[in-house]
Amino acid sequence: MIGNVYSTICPGCNFGCGLYIRENGELEVDFRKSSPANAGKLCRFGMSLPRFYTPARSIVDGRETTLDEAAKEAAKRISSTKGSVAFLSLGNTTCEEHLAFQKLAESFGSLYTGVELGALPGDVHQTLSVGIPYSEIEAAKHIVLFIDPYEQYPLIVRRLLLAKKKGAKITSIWWKDMPLADENLRPADTSKLQLTGDSLIIADFHPLSDTEQVKSLLALAKNAGAKITFLKPFVNSTGAYILSMDAKQKSLAQLIEDINKGTIKTLFCLESDILELMPEAIAKLTNLIVQTGQESAITKKAHIVIAHEPLYKKRGTLINNEGRAQAPGGAGTGGLEALGTIAGTKFDFDSLHESVKKMIGITAVDEFTVPAYERPTYAAPRATAKPPDAKILLASVYNPFMWSGLADDNDFVELSLNMVRALKLLKGGTVKINYNGSLLEKKFKVAPVQDNVLLTGKRIGIEKGAITPVEVSR
Ligand code: SF4
């Protein structure tokens, strides 16, 4: 930090884009051209950070209070519900805070990072946790995309175009044609894919990933001798997954089941807005405790909010998708202090930082170097993914706006011209979407989408995971 300017990392996804944030009465975003992950470029979400960073206030049962009071009240409620407390940290905070939180979870309840690592064979955990350097994407001869790069991880588009310029062929396996792809296949046509040892598969791994689909992608790469890399949605997903790889943890689906059964009564979310992921389960909690640096949909529902500095003011370490160690930009340790109050101990930043470096396998936080990570071989997992059998599908394209619950102006569904004609939809009009009796009317946009699919980059409230069977009408 120099003056009122913080050199920081965008919290929108794990791509690790660097930028400057200037506190000038209001927040301003500036481009940081020296940033190795993005060379200064930012996507729509990165440019929206002044909206994202709305400061949070500490609250207990609707009453505004101090951070210390909120942390003490959280400590009381966690102790009184010991045995039925769950701790969730998706990877939106520093490694040091995540590690302190993990220690707290070990003494009181169960830790969740949101992903189902435990449901996947141990020999694939490292492959899922740490991606390959972006320079390897640029150098690949054949890239196979199982993501929508424009919508989900926008700064990867630059790397893909550079690879293409060097002669790479790009195959996209998606519900809609990708302008940069040389070959567009649909998810049901994966068997037509021609992979070789020169191919690189790019997919993503997140709390709503279908485990069988992840296994089948790993097997696809393994059987062809191809490389595979997984992108991730939270600023420190990679750090959180590495630090928690050996921690006892359950899946998000298990957490929802435990809340519904009443075996989890208190949920403590560290920088994790999961309102989008489990809206019904959250309403059943006796205590929802949220520790965060900014206001979001979940702070409005929480019984206790422990509010401290936002990410760009924190001291600590972030690990981006390539495994690059980055600093969030500030000197604040308010989050660690709050966790110490709750744990009844003091978390020392320096000793946590040393542990983090050891566990990650780095000696310094140097964003200009990609450390050498072990890339162990793995056995091809057996997968039993089966295609959905519904006639019309609503496919959610998870993107930074959706994960962080930030309002996005792109409020429409995409569908094909054939669907528009079949339903006799009117230009500039809407389409009606029906799921189990819930009826919604949405604006639509015509795009080269598979004929039985509606794509949405915004949660519309009827989703049941990444794919929801629906009925549509005019
Ligand atoms: S690609 Fe990800 S990290 Fe980069 S600006 Fe967009 S949301 Fe932020």
Automatic annotation (TrEMBL):
Pfam families, alphabetically?
Answer: Molybdop_Fe4S4
Q: Which UniProt keywords apply?
A: 4Fe-4S, Iron, Iron-sulfur, Metal-binding, Oxidoreductase, Ubiquinone
User: Which residue range or ranges hold the 4Fe-4S Mo/W bis-MGD-type domain?
Assistant: 3-55
Q: Does the keyword 4Fe-4S apply?
A: yes
**In the UniProt record, does the keyword DNA repair occur?**
no
- Cellular compartments per GO CC: membrane
Q: Which SMART domains match?
A: Molybdop_Fe4S4
Which GO biological process categories is it annotated with? respiratory electron transport chain
User: GO molecular function terms here?
Assistant: 4 iron, 4 sulfur cluster binding; metal ion binding; NADH dehydrogenase activity
Name-wise, this protein is NADH:ubiquinone oxidoreductase chain G-like protein
Organism lineage? Archaea, Methanobacteriati, Methanobacteriota, Stenosarchaea group, Methanomicrobia
